[in-house]
What does this fold into?
Amino acid sequence: MSVETGVKTLEIDGEEVSARAEQTILEVARENDVNLPTLCHLDGLSDVGACRLCLVEIAGSNKLAAACVTTVQEGMIIRTDTERLRKHRRLILEMLFAERNHVCSVCVSNGHCELQTLAQEQGLIHVRLPYRNPQLAVDASHERFTADHNRCILCTRCVRVCAEIEGAHVWDVMGRGIDSLVITDLHEDWGSSSCTRCGKCVQVCPTGALFDKSKIGSDHPKSPDFLPYLNLMREAQ
It folds into this structure.
């Protein structure tokens, strides 16, 4: 019957739940008040599984699955909070901190940074990995905004909001691995790019790598929750 109706029955952390066939594990978990940490996910944008913080265990598989890009299946038995998962999440956060130049105590986004908040929630008290300390550029060529690559975690929220919501396709990713950078157009300065100056990319950035020059500091938190509203209005039209 579940196949005919498109309804799946599965188990999350010992509780039996129902889901629509096209839903992801993350969607179903949140519908049932199961908290899964995320950084690259944002309601209103497509999912890419970039940060891997929403990893879950699925019975019968040795691999950990990213909940945001894994669709539910009938009879799944899922665990979202095990010691193995907690260790993986803390290690992922450590690697994110060590890869660029994230030093919360001297950062203007201190207190309004999703990376910092998740580290606190996951019990990360210090970073065991050596910091790479790359020499990365700060692009302040735009009249309103600045891009500080030292604080970027390559979540690609800016890329997706620019393409999927604004339709401008200004942002993209250049390079591979630790050499990857988000860029505007064909690696032009932000100020001379085809940017529409809407500021959506700035609002969705989780760390403050993109920020408004006139609103620097903890007194000006961002509001990335506008995306579902925009999508709802477009569907209504």
DSSP finds seven helices and ten strands in the chain. Residues 114 and 206 are 5 Å apart (CA to CA).
